[in-house]
Write a structure and sequence with these properties.
Elements: H1 7-11, H2 19-33, H3 43-57, H4 60-69, E1 89-96, E2 99-106, H5 126-132, E3 147-153, H6 155-160, E4 162-168, E5 171-177, E6 186-188, E7 192-198, E8 205-207, E9 210-218, H7 219-224, E10 226-232, E11 235-241, E12 249-253, E13 269-276, H8 283-294
Parallel strand pairs: 3-7, 9-13
Antiparallel strand pairs: 1-2, 4-5, 6-7, 8-9, 10-11, 12-13
Helix pairs in contact: 2-3
């Protein structure tokens, strides 16, 4: 019998990974190895392995048992709470199109309610059902999934919100994108989902609700102090530079970051100050610096 791979290795995360990191890794791996998309011979096996790993690592109790006992916690007769271990595994097989899916569940759940979150999907097969339509193999009589569309936004459109005209099922519609949506976000418009792709910006870099920018200072500005203009998503602001500012100094502008799309406050802007050393000096400039060095 082949030895099972480490679940953390399967998802490509460390043992200290957060719930969000585990969920993100699962979604990425599941989309990559779903047999409807990946026709490699090993795709079905990898897809099963990915779902099995995520079911365990996404559940607090199962993850704790796995961290302590490894795969033995889920093997029949392991001695950790009965003949089927504490979470007794059960395999289910479903057929969809030309593929047969075999999936192992732990904990005795029936039907689609398997006791954990499939990375934001109601079951592992909803991933492609949402992209291509159709029914999930879990449970009978499910209706066709809502369609999923994609939209590309500039950094400012995503940060400040924007109204867009789109074509949905051959009908033109105006939709409002809320301020603060991030790259990879999914917006539920009721009858369809919209996935957001945010283009990189030359000036701003985003991390959560915080924004980072670089500001160059001349040697004299950093040495003597100055007032400089710094860009924010709401326009330029004046920033006082203290004399003796060192290269790489980070200045925090409170409340100048991204608005939370759920209305829970706003992030900050961080300005990294970079001192530009002149590459060419006039004779007089050189003399002044030499006198300064002697002092």
């Amino acid at each position: 019998m082949a030895t099972k791979r480490d679940y953390y290795e399967v998802l490509g995360v460390s043992k200290n990974a957060s719930e969000a990191e585990i969920k993100s890794a699962y979604r990425k791996q599941a989309l990559q190895w779903h047999p409807d998309r990946n026709r490699a011979k090993e795709a079905e096996g990898r897809f099963k392995e990915i779902n099995e790993a995520y079911e365990v690592l996404s559940n607090k109790d199962k993850k704790a048992a796995y961290d302590q006992f490894g795969h033995a916690a889920f093997e029949p007769g392991a001695g950790f709470g009965g003949a089927a271990g504490p979470f007794g595994g059960r395999e289910r097989t479903y057929r969809q199109g030309p593929f047969t899916y075999t999936y192992t569940t732990y904990g005795g759940g029936e039907g689609p309610d398997l006791g954990f979150d499939f990375g934001g999907f109601s079951d592992p097969f909803e991933i492609f059902a949402q992209f291509f339509g159709g029914e999930s193999p879990f449970g009978g009589g499910r209706t066709v999934r809502k369609q999923r569309y994609g939209i590309s936004l500039s950094f400012m459109e995503a940060a400040k919100g924007v109204e867009k005209e789109v074509v949905i099922e051959r009908k033109r519609r105006k939709i409002k994108i809320p301020a603060g949506v991030d790259d990879g976000s999914t917006i539920n418009f009721g009858d369809f989902y919209l996935s957001v792709d945010v283009k990189p910006d030359e000036t701003f870099r985003r991390d959560g609700l915080d924004v980072y920018v670089e500001k160059e200072l001349t040697f004299s500005q950093a040495t003597l102090g100055a007032i400089v203009e710094v860009p924010t998503i709401d326009g330029s602001v004046s920033l006082r530079i203290r004399s003796g500012t060192q290269p790489g100094t980070m200045v925090r502008l409170r409340g100048q970051g991204i608005k939370d799309p759920h209305g829970r406050g706003r992030g900050d802007e961080y300005v990294r100050l970079q001192v530009v050393v002149p590459t060419r000096l006039s004779r007089r400039q050189r003399e002044i610096l030499e006198e300064f060095e002697e002092e």
